[in-house]
Amino acid sequence: MSGIFNSSIGRKFAMALSAFFLMIFLLQHFAINILSVFSPEAFNNTSHFMGTFWIVQYIFQPILILGVIFHFVMGMVLEVRNRNARKIAYAKNNGNANSTWMSRNMIYTGGAILLFLGLHFYDFWLPEINTKYIQGDMSGLLPDGNYRYFEELQHKFVDVWRVALYCLAFVFLSLHLLHGFSSAFQSVGANNKYTRGLKGFGKAYAIIIPLGFIFIALYHHFNY
Amino acid sequence: MKLTLKIWRQKNADTKGKLVDYQIDGIDGDMSFLEMLDVLNGQLINKGEEPVAFDHDCREGICGSCSLFINGEAHGPDRLVTTCQLHMRMFKDGDTIHIEPFRATAFPVIKDLVVDRGSFDRVQHAGGFISVNTSGKTVDANTIPVNKHDADMSFMAATCIGCGACVASCKNSSAMLFVSAKVSQFALLPQGKIEATERVLNMVKQMDEEGFGNCTNTGACEVECPKGISLENIARMNREYLSATFKG
Ligand code: SF4
Ligand code: FES
Question: Which helix (H) or strand (E) holds B21?
Answer without folding.
Answer: strand B18-24
